[in-house]
Amino acid sequence: MKKVVERLHHQLIVSCQAYPGEAMRHPETMAQIAFSAQAGGAGGIRCQGLSDISAIKGTVSVPVIGLWKEGDTGVYITPTLRHARCCMAAGADIVALDATDRPRPDGLSLAETVRILHSEGAVLMADCSCLDDARRARDLGFDIVSPTLAGYTEARQKTDGPDYELIEAMVSNISDIPVICEGRVHTPEQAQRVKSLGVWAVVVGTAITHPQTITSWFVQALQE
């Protein structure tokens, strides 16, 4: 197992991302949030966009999982070989890719993309939507699998919180590479529960780093 993946074992990974048009959509801001997360005990950071990856990598000492989102439909998480190579060049220790079976914009298959990136020394995280995605990703040689896209394709319905059923199935069926939980972990209790299922690490984003959404939760509660 690659050392950078070993460093994430039993760690909290904090996802530091802001959406287009938001006030916090700035590399320096994301780097400051990442530094604060590290100071609070985070063992890894996940972030998107080349400027953010570069700024965060220059600020923290924990492993950085980088991705590049382009568009908002189809394959948009590090959708092409070029996007992945750019994430590596920006400093990502691990590159996250959409690992569904949907067509990729550059015409390469997922298998071709993984083969080329591994030949160039990349450590790869598979963002999956279902168990079939995770099995295929393992067989293709991904270093990590995650249910990041569960509920965001037609493969599975979106759950209110983490997709515990899928997480448990992934841990049970994929024992030779780490399963990292990502997706709708909003409370410490949910983080504890997914950890008890045997995941390698837990990613938390919105509940830590997205004040706009956190504020809306409180506003909605007060209006009910």
From TrEMBL:
The keyword Isomerase applies. It catalyses: an N-acyl-D-glucosamine 6-phosphate = an N-acyl-D-mannosamine 6-phosphate. Keywords: Carbohydrate metabolism, Isomerase. Pathway: Amino-sugar metabolism; N-acetylneuraminate degradation; D-fructose 6-phosphate from N-acetylneuraminate: step 3/5. Its EC number is 5.1.3.9. The keyword NAD does not apply. Belongs to the NanE family. HAMAP family: ManNAc6P_epimer. Converts N-acetylmannosamine-6-phosphate (ManNAc-6-P) to N-acetylglucosamine-6-phosphate (GlcNAc-6-P). NCBIfam families: PRK01130.1. This is Putative N-acetylmannosamine-6-phosphate 2-epimerase. It comes from Bifidobacterium polysaccharolyticum.
